[in-house]
Predict the structure.
Amino acid sequence: MKGKSLYQDSSISTTALTLLFGLLMVGISLYLTNHYFGVKYPTGLESGSLCNFNSFFNCDKTTLSPLGNLLLVPTSIFGVIIGGLALLGLILKNEEYERTVYFTLIINMIGCVILFFYSLIALGGLCPMCTAYYAASAAMLFMFYKKSSDYKPNFGVLGIFLVLTVVAGYFVRANILAKETAKSSIAVSLIDQYYKMPNLGTPNPASEFQIAKADNAPIKMAVFSDFQCPACKMLSEQTKKLAELYKGKIQIDYYFYPLDVNCNPNMERPLHDLACRAAYVSACVGPKFDTVHDEIFENQDRITSEFLNGIAKREGVEACVNDPKTKEKVVALINAAAPFNVRSTPTYLINGVKIEGVLPIDQVQIILDEILKRAGK
């Protein structure tokens, strides 16, 4: 091959770095693909993610965004393909192939930049694993920039790349369509799982804060939540719909569980540094709790001390927010989570059965409808 060549470079360092960055691209993309399926198509009553660090660094934001998939195919699949093609070059050591991979990595990097700024500006946060993929892609592209002299693609090889991508996308999409079809069969599995899980009872003390109130309701929900947790925001939107759909048949009690060292004795390190303050503000507004609850969650991306202080001033509860007794009230509800081994937010109880994470609302409805059916309602 004329000029410089990454794949023809026999040095151990070049080969090792190319292998490392390629494996990172593939590995991270596989994780993100698995995360996509876990969020979109959970198979049980527990869900969650290791890469939801806080309200800013959060994978769910990207997964659930319009650019999280292309025609139902998760965007991360393309990362698996591109990383795999880059690794294959270490075996083929072909000039046309190398130039085409170089070109593909440039296109990939343009896509990474677009997605990075889309996430940062439109979504108000970053997916940590996506950002790691962007970094691995940039490192791989830099390797080609230093070691390869030409990025003009061979259109025959590029055509093969496109065919492979379309074929892979076709099979992934077919799998997703099958999952959509299989949703109905999940109902049987969910109901079976729900009634096999232990009834852990109700939190003590009872919360005075309700999202939906109904005396003698056959459905009782107790929600342990954090105002700065993105998944909690999803659940807040869901519970609002459930309150409307099951009006008079469901009571939803809200329990503060801020992932914030300022009031949560179970936290070992800082995470959501304004979650306690948000809890104090909402705890002080009395009958307006549900309205302020919705307002804080709706503005989650712009929660600041000034924002929360503004609500407190508007509602005339500034003294209450700063009163040590308010913190005691919030801590009492945090401690009510202890018997249920609450490890993350959101966690909630449906008639005493513990569920971690956020299930799709249609799956929650399957459980609630079955409860009403068995209660003769």
